[in-house]
Every structure is written in structure tokens, then in C-alpha cells.
Automatic annotation (TrEMBL), chains A, B:
Domain of life according to the entry: Bacteria
Pfam family for this entry, one: MoCF_biosynth
Protein name, entry field: CinA-like protein
Xref: CDD domains: cinA
NCBIfam families referenced in this protein's UniProt entry, alphabetically: cinA_nterm, molyb_syn, PncC_domain, PRK00549.1
Stated family: Belongs to the CinA family.
All residue ranges annotated as the MoaB/Mog domain in the record: 4-171
Organism of this sequence: Mucilaginibacter pedocola
Length: 415, 415
């Protein structure tokens, strides 16, 4: 079963927002056995929307549309859909009740533009929007299903999970797609590819292997297409096992999880705690950890010691160390990590100090120079990295480097 | 001048990665006066790529392609482009030299798959990739320009900024697009729309107004299309001034910057410093600030006090306060913010404590309950928020709420 996603909104085409909806929807649909043929972002323009709808319907059976359902004049999706289907608009009682309920809840007067949000093309089935005022709309038209949803992520997500996917499952007999992902780190894409070339060559036509490199990690993803979930799963597992065995030195996880989740899982299993002393990453590393539910079992917290005064006051870094070796040095990062262990009473600690850029570099320590330390009560490991010139990238790479060092230290001490 | 962006990669269509490249490219091209007609994401599939190229060429003059240039077997963009143009492949000396240089730099042996990365369709002009091994490719074909670039963001970004845009500017006479964005906060989209309805109705046909709502903020974006940059700019400014005056109570910035940057700019102008005590946001608020170059002038750092022990040890929160009122309470957040002011010696401080979810909620304090405090030496303001059930959203909304409270407190004390 093929689907297409059309996201509508000038804000996407001028780059003011990143379309995160499509990836989220694609993942959910894939797990339900629906393949996304194409994702298209088009403008808030009548002709363009009409063309995109017709093109998508020529390629796919399910067309999912987000965006352009707001109360303001630039939002024209709804009336353009009515035009596309050749129908008029009607007021929907359930949708109007929903809009009224929301405005009442926030104690706001119901404006005419808001009341009009409950108007829908007369051939649609309304999907109630529990989290917002714009109703979702389901259309059956010439053998295809069209679903129009708001572009606001948490409104759309609720609809997809609770309403759209169950309804699609009830409507179509869905084929099966099985993915099996292996997370590797510390080894380049082409070296991995060479290592597993013969396994890749032996894959049957209905199983594909993809390499997804990102910041020192490569995810290897096997995808199998067919009808029999159990058989496909067994088949894919055999190849995944072969690959994981061959590349075992680099395998971080046998599931599609980010590196920091590997760290959290490993530490949670062993009942260990972690703290952080972040300078150049400025809270990013802590955020990567704490974005995951349950991280508080492992992560006690830490300090964002952007100013040197905090490195001294909170972590107990010796001012002489900073003045002799500099803030960005192996000596300072060692005192930071050992200070964090002591001060926050955690089993493991991590510390980072570096020059994220764009300013602050010198000939000796250019932008991108980062010292990272990982430690437990028995051992402190430090490492100097030389990343590039881009601030955000240096921050991301530092965090990934730190997670990798922590996992490596944990593995030395485990098993 | 119209362009289209085609991003190639199964990883996008199964939702394993979010396509951030397109928004970035769209923004850069827009500023150069090139409008993006459509963004399409297609799979690593020969027929699909060929169709997408032909469709895009039917709508636009410039076709920008990213992805599918890696050394591994799933990457087929290059040979598919050669097929599309009906040409063979040749080894490019400059590209080969570049690949060799990079492998030498990292002291890695040059594999055959890497050497083959220097092979390109014979009708292309190579765009050197300073940050990676896959060359960029520029094609002139039947009056259209095609540019193929790697999907790795920092490789693509360098090429677009340093090579592609200058070359497009040299090739085409580009029209002008002027944007003027106003950032508002604390007021809903439909209320803003009603407030400025008459101004919106008076806009000439070549100026469009868009509402971009996100997490309690609405950006109002005016876009003008034409030939005379100076005239358009003057015209757009008049309407932007009218709107900003009418909505002045909610206007945070007269430029397209995020809310935390408004805060940083305001504090930097006044020479003020800030520290943070984050519990439920777990480092996210600090990261939002420190992602911006120059943030260290304002932001001293702070503590991620995930564990209660840290709230007591570092911030001096009284254990009795926590046991009587709870970790998530006005009393605790007050002691946190005042502890941060004292401990980190900053002019302003912010503190957050809440239940991000999905666990930890109670009937009295459900998931999404967040207390935020903003303070300076003279005044502490606290506020209780009740957000929703989604962890990441609660984290984001908390940070935005905190920035809004800090800006409000600064405005009371400013001018």
C-alpha cells in the first residue's frame, strides 16, 4: 500500500520552519505497513495544491495532507479541497462544539473566524481534534483516501495515532514491512561496507540494506518487504545477526535508538548514576539525556559551567590550573570531571570544555578544539578532539564523543 | 526565478531522519531572490528519481538535488543522473585529489569504493567538496540548471553558500523577494488576526502576510515580490510598522529571531548576566541559550538539578521546603531561583521545576505541571503552568514560558 504526504505552507518553502511532521508520519505509517512513495511540500496556493493532489493521487492510494487549516486568510487548504472534490462547504456540529469547548476552556470569546473553522467540505468525515480548533477531515474519493490534518505537530500526531492509522488499518489489507536496525559507532561508512560486502551481496531482492551515517555513527538498516510478517522477521534477523557479528567491534545497539539511549539503558541495567559538567556543550548533553523518559533513574544532573567562576565554585577546579593550562585543556577537564564525581556523588561523570566557535579560537587552540573526560571512581579517561568551525556541529559532535567515551568506559568495567 | 529541491533517500521516506537540509536551502535561496516552488523527497530508486527530475524540470528552472552520493550500494543518484542526461561517467582528477587528500589527512587507506566517488557524469562541472569525499555536480541541460550535492548537512551547506549561490547569481538575473518578520508572544493567532484585519485587507497583491504560530509565539511574516529591492523594502516596512504598532503589546522583536535571542540581545545591550536552575527542562533551556554565538557574554551557566540532592547541595533549597510543599511547588522554585542568583552571582536567574512526564504525575499535580521563577535582586516572579502530556513539548513550552517571563521582568525594569 502506497501513501504520499503533502505538506502545505509557504513557511516551509521559504525555510522558516523545518518540516518535522513528515518524518514522524512516515515512521508511523511504515510501522503500519504503508510505504511512503513521496513527500511533497507545496505553497499556500490554490493551483499548486490542486496539482499536487492530482499528482499524488496518480501515484498512491492514500494521500495525507497537513497544514493550511488555520483560521487566518493565508490558510486555504479546506476550500481548495472542496474545489478539488467539486463539493460545497457545510457547518459540522461536532467540530463547532469542539471549537466552542476549547474557547470556553481558555475563557476566550469565540470569534467568527474561529466558528468558521468548524466548516468542512460536505463529502468529508470529520476527525475530531482534541488538541486544537481545526478539525481533521477524511475523504473517500474515486477509490483513494485523502486525509487533511492541521500542521501543528501535537494536533496532527494525536489524530494520526488515535484516528487515522486505526481507520486505515480497517479500510485496507496492509502489506508488511519489517525493519531491523543496527547502531554502530567509531567506524566509517565505507569501512563498514567493505567489511560486510559479501553479506550485502547475498541479500535476496526483497531485502534492502541502507547505511545511515550521522556524527560518527552509522546505522545499518535492513528492510524486508512481503506478506508474511513472521517469515520476513526471521529472514531479516538472520542477515542482521550476520552483519552484527561481523561488525561487532563497532556495534552499539541492536535496535534503532540514539547513542545516549544506549548509555542510559546500559547504566540503568547496572543501577549506575551519572553526572555532567558541561562547558562548551552548554546544556546540550544534559538535554540529550533528559529528553528520554526515565532518564532521572540514571542522570542526577550537573552543572553548565559556562563561566570559569562556576568551574571553580561548583566543581572545585583550581584557578591555577586554568591560568597555567587554560580553560580548554586536559588538566582542566580532568579537574572538572573529578569535581563532578565528588560534588554530585555519581558513579560516573563526564566533563567537556572546548571552543565551540565561531569566536574564541587561537592558533594553538583553534575553534573546534574540545577536551572530553569520562570517569568513575577508579579511572579517568581524557581525550582531545579537533572538530570543525561550526558551532552547533561542534556541540553535537562533542556530546556524541562524550557518550561514546562513557559507553567505552562502561564496557571496560562491565561483563 | 523558480527552483525545486529534491531530496533523495529512503531514510527520509521511512522517517528515520528529518529533512533539515531543505528548509536551510530554501532560506538561503529565498534571500538570493530564488523562490522554491516545491520540495520533494523521493526514494533511492532509479525510476522514481528519473520521474522526480522530469517533473521538477517541468515546473522550475533550477533543480537542487541532495543525497544518494555516498560510497555504498544504496546510493544511486550519480549514475541515475548520468542516465537522465544520457551521458557516460568519467573520473574527475580534482575530485580524486580531494578524496585522496581527505583519506591521507585521517591516515586511512583509500578503498576502491572511495576512489569511485571521484567518478562523475561526463557533462558535469565538479563542485569541490571541502568537507567530504563526494563531489558536488553542476549541470546545464536544455536551459535548466541541475545541482547535485551530498545529503550530509555540513558538506551541502558549504557548497550552497560558497559555490552554488554565487554561481546561480552569475548565471541568472534574479528577481527580488523581501521578507519582514515580526515576532509576537503571549497572544493567539486569531486574536492577532482580528486586531490587524483592516491592515491585512489593505495589502497590495504583491505583498502577502503569513501567520506562523509556534509554542505561544506567532511570527507575522510579510513577503513582497518584485524587481526593485529598495522600493519593495520601503513598501513592506510601511505595512510592517503599521502591524507592529497595532500589536505592540505582543511584539517581542522586529526581526526573525527566536525568543531566547530576544532575551540574550536585551541583556547584552544592558550588560546583564543570567544563570539558570533547571529541573524538568534538564539542560534544554541552557542549550537554547548557548546554541547562539556570543551567549557567554550574558549566560554564566547554571545547574541541571535533576536529583533533589543537587537542589539542596548546589542551590541551597531547604530539604523541609521540598518535603512540605513538594519538589514541584512555588516554594521550591522560589528557593531555586534565589539560590541560583546567590550561588552563581548573576543579575538575573531563572528556575524551573515540573513534571515533564510521561511518569510522575499525581491527581493534584498531573504531568505537565510546571513552576517557573524569574528573578533579579529586587524581585522574584513565579508562575504555575499546566501544559500537556507530551514530555518533549512540556520541555519546550517550559523554556519558552521562562524566556517570556524573563523578558517581561526585564521590560518592567528597563527603559
Amino acid at each position: 500500500m502506497l501513501a504520499e504526504i503533502i505538506t502545505i505552507g509557504d513557511e516551509i518553502l521559504i525555510g522558516q520552519i523545518v518540516d518535522t511532521n513528515s518524518a514522524w508520519m512516515a515512521e508511523k505509517l511504515n510501522h503500519a505497513g504503508i510505504r511512503i512513495k513521496q513527500i511533497s511540500s507545496v505553497s499556500d496556493n490554490r493551483e499548486h495544491i490542486l496539482t499536487a493532489l492530482a499528482e499524488a493521487a496518480g501515484r498512491a492510494d492514500i494521500i495525507l495532507i497537513t497544514g493550511g487549516l488555520g483560521p487566518t486568510k493565508d490558510d486555504i487548504t479546506k476550500k481548495t479541497l472542496a474545489e478539488y472534490f467539486g463539493v460545497g462547504m457545510v457547518m459540522n456540529d461536532a467540530a463547532l462544539e469542539n471549537v466552542s469547548r476549547i474557547f470556553k476552556k481558555y475563557n476566550r470569546p469565540l470569534l467568527e473566524v474561529n466558528r468558521l473553522q468548524a466548516q468542512v467540505p460536505e463529502n468529508c468525515e470529520v476527525i475530531l481534534n482534541k488538541n486544537g480548533t481545526a478539525p481533521g477531515m477524511w475523504f473517500n474519493h474515486e477509490g483513494k483516501v485523502y486525509v487533511s490534518m492541521p500542521g501543528v505537530p501535537f494536533e496532527m500526531k494525536y489524530m494520526v495515532e488515535e484516528e487515522v492509522i486505526p481507520k486505515l488499518q480497517a479500510t485496507f489489507k496492509l502489506p508488511v514491512i519489517i525493519h531491523n536496525t543496527i547502531l554502530t559507532a567509531g567506524e566509517g561508512e565505507s569501512f563498514l561496507a567493505e567489511k560486510i560486502a559479501d553479506i550485502e551481496d547475498s541479500l535476496p531482492a526483497h531485502i534492502k540494506l541502507a547505511y545511515l551515517p550521522k556524527l560518527g555513527q552509522v546505522r545499518l538498516r535492513l528492510s524486508a518487504f512481503g506478506d508474511d510478517a513472521e517469515k520476513l522477521q526471521a529472514e531479516v534477523n538472520i542477515y542482521a545477526d550476520k552483519i552484527a557479528e561481523r561488525a561487532s567491534y563497532a556495534v552499539m545497539a541492536r535496535e534503532d535508538i540514539p547513542l545516549e539511549k544506549v548509555l542510559l539503558n546500559t547504566m540503568a541495567e547496572r543501577g549506575l548514576t551519572l553526572s555532567a559538567a558541561e562547558s562548551c556543550t552548554g546544556g546540550y548533553l544534559s538535554h540529550m539525556l533528559t529528553q528520554h523518559a526515565g532518564s532521572s533513574k540514571v542522570f542526577l544532573g550537573g552543572v553548565v559551567s559556562y563561566a570559569n567562576q562556576l568551574k571553580q565554585d561548583i566543581l572545585g577546579v583550581n584557578p591555577a590550573t586554568i591560568s597555567v593550562f587554560g580553560t580548554v585543556s586536559g588538566e582542566t577537564v580532568t579537574e572538572m570531571v573529578e569535581g563532578a564525581l565528588r560534588r554530585f556523588k555519581s558513579d560516573y561523570a563526564v566533563a567537556l570544555t572546548g571552543i565551540a566557535g565561531p569566536d574564541g579560537g587561537t592558533a594553538e587552540k583553534p575553534v573546534g578544539t574540545v577536551w572530553i573526560a569520562a570517569a568513575n571512581a577508579n579511572k579517568t579517561v581524557i581525550k582531545k578532539f579537533t572538530f570543525g568551525e561550526k558551532r552547533l556541529q561542534n556541540i553535537e559532535r562533542s556530546a556524541v564523543g562524550a557518550f561514546f567515551m562513557l559507553i567505552t568506559l562502561l564496557r571496560e568495567n562491565g561483563n
